[in-house]
Amino acid sequence: MSKRVFLTRYLVEQQRHDGRIPPELRLLLEVVARACKRISLAVNKGALGEVMGSADSENVQGEVQKKLDIIANEVLIEANEWGGHLAAMASEEMEGIYLVPNRYPQGEYLLLFDPLDGSSNIDVNVSIGTIFSVLRKPEGDRGVEESDFLQPGCQQVAAGYCVYGPQTTLVLTVGDGVAMFTLDREQGSFVLTEENVRIPEDTKEFAINMSNMRHWDEPVRRYIDECLQGKEGPRGKDFNMRWVASMVADVHRIMTRGGVFLYPWDRREPTKPGKLRLMYEANPMGWLIEQAGGAATNGRQRILDIAPRTLHERVSVILGSKNEVERVTSYHNPL
Ligand code: P6P
């Protein structure tokens, strides 16, 4: 059996190799990975852990919170607040930012996360996941403010997700490609199972919630209609469709075998640019996809170039196999 490389060794070698992972960032990534292990254990207990169902509360998005949403959020806060690597955190489950308490040392990083994305799937035993993004806090000794988080995705220093499915798999980038680690439950360690992940530039598989078709804008309708026409149509090939309704699961499939994921703007809530959140869903996933050779736009511009205006702002998302994303984007920007 080939020598197993655990997450810690991988991060130490990356740190030693090109200095891309300063010690504080390595600590941050190891702490987040440990928190994901704890979340995985809670998720895997299911009904046995009395963690199923909804809490009697709503999050800042106005969505009913699942008990596991709150548990996952608390696990990430508690794991990260004392280590001295962070200055503050932001979460889909919290309206404002969370400042590291003064009783703990202050670090130079900002951590953003969707603690349990796809939580509508919890009660039906379908894969869900944690998404995280790491930014540097601006220079200076002043306290961190919400505006310090409003950096474009191209400023991220690390990003990743952990998918809680048949396997628990941690996928991360620090800007030098994408690596995947599978949790060895017997040892309680993440083991390197894939590095230099590459997404095929072409695909025959699209992921979108088809029930919203009548609400889409014309460029998306045109793209999906052409896919549905199959080899008799302008694409000259048949397409397959997948929709898990869990972004982490859909993105992980694309990271593994290619594909294109679309959650576009639609007429149901025309004042919202999209359903997914820029800071802790689209930006980390967009960077991971780009680092694996794919592309990510909002239909008109690169996701990672979008200048955020608010912490929980939403965005239209088209990401995955490069040539398909470029096609959909070209339909939005006719010459
Ligand atoms: P719909 C989960 O709630 C989520 O934020 C993403 O993980 C997922 O891709 C999307 O919403 C699913 O949305 O409208 O199909 O339920």
What does this molecule look like?
With 335 residues, the protein is α+β, with helices and mostly antiparallel strands. It folds into 2 domains: 7-194, Fructose-1,6-Bisphosphatase, Chain A, domain 1, CATH 3.30.540.10; 205-332, D-Maltodextrin-Binding Protein, domain 2 (3-Layer(aba) Sandwich). The radius of gyration is 19 Å and the shape is globular. Strand 11 (205-207), helix 4 and strand 12 (240-241) form a beta-alpha-beta unit. The longest helix has 23 residues, at 23-45. The protein has an 8-stranded mixed sheet with strand order 4-3-5-6-7-8-9-10, sandwiched between helices. Strands 12-11-13-17-15 form a 5-stranded mixed sheet, sandwiched between helices. It has a two-stranded antiparallel ribbon with strand order 1-2. Helix 2 (23-45) packs antiparallel against helix 3 and helix 4 (218-229) packs across helix 7 (322-332). It has helices at 7-18, 23-45, 67-80, 218-229, 247-257, 278-291, 322-332; strands at residues 54-58, 64-66, 86-91, 98-99, 109-117, 128-136, 158-164, 168-173, 178-184, 189-195, 205-207, 240-241, 260-263, 276-277, 295-297, 314-315, 317-320. Bound molecules: 6-O-phosphono-alpha-D-fructofuranose. 6-O-phosphono-alpha-D-fructofuranose binds at residues 117-118, 120, 209, 245-247, 250, 263, 275-276. Residues 117-118, 120, 209, 245-247, 250, 263, 275-276 line the site of 6-O-phosphono-alpha-D-fructofuranose.
